Each structure stands twice: as C-alpha cells, then as structure tokens.
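Pilot study result, target chain (596 residues):
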Amino acid sequence: MLLPGPALAVRHRRVSKAPVRRAKPKIKKAARVEASAAREEKTAARWARSLSLHDAVAQLVVVPFSGQPLAPRSKAYKDLFNLVRRTRVGGVILVNVFEGHLIQHADPLQAAALINKLQGAARIPLLFSADLERGASMRLNDTTVFPHAMAFAAGGDAGSARAEGVITAREARAIGIQWIFYPVADVNSNPDNPIINIRSFGENAADVSRYVAAFIEGAHSDPRYRVLTTAKHFPGHGDAATDTHVNLVTIPATRQHLDEVELPPFRAAIQAGVDAVMSAHVALPAIEDAATPATLSPAILTGLLRHDLGFRGIIVTDALEMGGIAKGFTVGDAAVRALEAGVDVLLMPSDPLAAIDAVMTAVKSGRLTRQRINESVHRILLAKARVGMDRGKLVNQKSISKLVNLPEANAVAQGIADRSITLVRNDGALVPLRDPAKTLFLLLTENSKGDEGQAFAQELKKRVPNANVRILDPALSPADLDALVQQSQTAESVVAAAFVSVAAYAGNVALRGAYPELLRRIGKPIILAALGSPYLLRAFPDVAAYLTAYSTVPPSEIALVRALLGETSISGKLPVSIPGLAPYGAGISLPAVSKP
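Predicted structure:
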C-alpha cells in the first residue's frame, strides 16, 4: 500500500485537542494459548493431588444416564447418585431409553437440570458425553436435527460438516455436555456393514478425511462452546459385516490396506486436533491375535495409535457392555486389559464397581502401576480443565432456549438434507412426478407407531391436500397387502419411500416383514426412495427410478418430498458404490421445475 507523503499528510490532518489514547497492546495468540495451557496443567495437578488410588481409578470410568427425570426415592436415582457422590466416577454418558421398540429422547431442560444435580454431587467436575452423530438430536428432543453423515458427503461440501460442528458444540454445551463422541472416521467399504453404513461419510478415504477434519474444526471454532471431539472407531469399523454390539468382528485387512483406507481419516482427525479416539471391538489379525479386540490390544492402541500415528490425546473404549467385549471377557478382566493396552477411559462397563475393584487389585499386585493410572488420570483432568470445568460446571438453564434449536440452525440442517438427495436411476423420466394427486405414496416405516413418515406426509399434504399417502407397518396383513396392490393398479404412479435405518442389535439393514412382497407384486414402474441405506437398490435392482436420502430424519423426509415434486434441484452424488448397479459418484442432476 502507498502512503501519502509528508506534505499531503499535513494538508489533510486535523488538529484535535482530545487526549491521545494509546491502544492497549494485544496479547499474541501464542501467548494466550501458552497461558491457558499453564492454567489447565495447574488445575489438573491440583485435582490429581486430592485423589486416592480408588478415586483415581474411578476417574477413568464413565457410566450411563438417560437424562429423563428420576424420582429422588427411586433405585435408579440412588444408584446413579451413589456412583457420582460415593464411587466418584469421572464421567457420565447420555443414552437413549426404549419404550417398547421406540426410542425416547430426553428433554433439554430436564436433562440439564439432572446434569446440574449430578455436577453438584461431584467433588471433581464430571465430564458429560454423548454420541451426537446427528447433532444433539441424536439424544435430545427440541434440538437441531441433522441427517446422517453420508448425507453430508452426498452434498459434496465439507463446509456443511464444519457448520454441524459449530452448531452441535453450541447446543451440547448449552445443555451441559462437554464431550462429543463424533465424528465417525470409519470408511464404509463394505456394503453389507450393518452398523456403520450411513453413519460413515462414505467409502472414499480422502473424502471421509475431509469431512472428519471439517467437523472437528467447526466444533473447536468457538471458544465459548469448547467441546471435546472423538474420532471413532479405531482402527476402522467400515469393512465389518457383523455388528459389534452382538459379537466380536474380524477385519481381514492387511497393513497396506489399513494405511490406504482405514487410517487416513484418523490421521486427518489427529492433524485437526481431535481430543479423543474411540476404540473398536474388532479383531485385526494383521496386527494382533485374532481373539483379541482392538480395545484390548497394546499393539493396536499403543503401537499403532500412540507410536505410529503419534496420538497424544484420550483413548476411550467403545461401550464395554457390548457383545464384542462382554461375550469374551469378564468386566474386571476387560477393564484391566484395556488399560494395559493403552486405554484412558472405560466407557459403560456393565458393573462399574467390579471394573474399579479389578483395576485397583491389578495395581496392588503390580500388574498395573500407579504411574500408568496417573497418566490416564492426567489426560482426563486436563481435558476437564480444557473445557473450563474448573471455572464453572453448572448449566445456565435460562439460556438454553437462546442457544438450542434456533431457526437459522434448522435452516442449515434442512439445506444439507436438500442437497443430499441423489437420483441414481430415472427410467421413463418418472422424477419429478407428473401428477402427484394421482400418485400412490407408500411409506414403508420400520414401526408405524413412531414418527417415521409423519414429516413426509405433512409436507406432501401442504402441497397436495388430497394426496394418497399410506404410512405402513412391516406387519402387513395379507388382506392389507392385497388392498394396497389393488390401489396401485389405479394410480398413475407409485412412490415407495422405505425407511432403512442402522440400529444396534438389528443385524442387518434391510426391508422387513411384508414389504419385499408388496414391492414385487406392484405391477407397474415403481419410484423407490431409500430414507436411509443407499444400498437398498441391491434388493430391488429392477425398479424404474431410485432416489436415496441417506437418513431417516424429518429433514430428509421433507427434502425427498421437495425433490419428488421438483421444488428443489437434485444434485447429490453417491459417496459409495452400489455393487453391480451404480458406481461411486453416480447421480443424475435435475433442475428445479416448480415453486413450493
């Protein structure tokens, strides 16, 4: 930049009698970071000095709570508070509860109130955690609802993952959660994966790496809502064909395959400053004995993760109550072996007291050293200080409504869902619909008593009040099935929107009950839309048109309606290949043709 010469400067200068105010020198960022790190170390050391062996070991344990109101005299209330007040566990994880086959989410205000009570009972502040894979809505009502990870990659903009990180961090901290078990760094290279699937950003390691890093950067971007992030499930769960909630999974990967496919997203996460890495209950014969899960393997967690990848943060187990661990090891043995492997945090042992007792016995016998326990305790206490738990551990419940479920945040989430819609096949140009009023819409829900299909039906009827929409249940009677087939014959077109979600212990991601027979018996071209797994096309390869939304959440239902009616352009691309039917990156682009 050219500056004015002396004469010009004098000519334009105005004399002011006001006193000259000198700007205060700005503290350089590096100095601020250094001062903050020193404070965190000092706080962690102060907390550590107060811990007995029992209390130190208890800091390594995280126990579950539902966030639902608990009667103070109930056993559940007393058990939970005893774990915090007397056992002095280090953390608590928010989990869903089930009512029948339906998931019940917690209310933010009620969850925050219980979190505050638990924090008040804790001598050292607790770390509250949650699997917020679709934002806070994964566990809490009335929060911003994001689609599953694969929808982000279909939209093609890593900035969307960064935006999710920003919003999720703000909403989590508003409610009292400091530790997010996300992003999923698994590369879903196996179409038969029953538990990762749409939770992954896709099958391309480079793309997954970009989205993983973007989420972490977003979650860390605002110091007011600093959270801990977690890359999972190390060393990679994407090539599994079995659910680790049920059994131990063997990943038949070579070290070369690991380096090229499974590990790049974890390297990207570490480079982006991820705070924690969650282990997977998978066996990796290329590195460790086939009977030893990665969670219990020194070669994988210390050798590969700590030494080869250089990770210095917290290593947390996946839930120790899962079948991949619980079926082969006792609670105490799993806890001790996990710490021997390099783990810092024992997540959800089925018997926390047994886990603590086993670890204490191992220390007293010399199997584990107190120094080994102290190393993990230091990482945990440092993390608590990093998220400011020493400066304030209680939630301001009055501010929750100002930070959570904001209209602008929901608009961001809806935009991500809109851009994710992928048109894989469109024989006969069936999409967009020629006459929605003469179309039969079959919503193949996984449980018609839940909320699945409601957003789709409501959104459609706003545009087409007389639309023929049927929300179905897998347990269709033969008479109902016959009636639906008959209705399809008089309709001009048929849309089958199938909910195919990933769920623990389900064992697969497929249409259930009478649905496959229903689709086979409809004797005219079908527009099949997958609200969930994009691999559904493999079960119905002859459908005339096929769209996928990668998620079962309401924004994805709304996005599908908009796409079918031509209100939004369709531009999504497959972040996975559908073997024999569609390659990675496939997707037909269509412009919008009508206004909402």
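One observation from the pilot: The chain is about 40% helix and 15% strand. A full batch analysis is planned for the follow-on phase.
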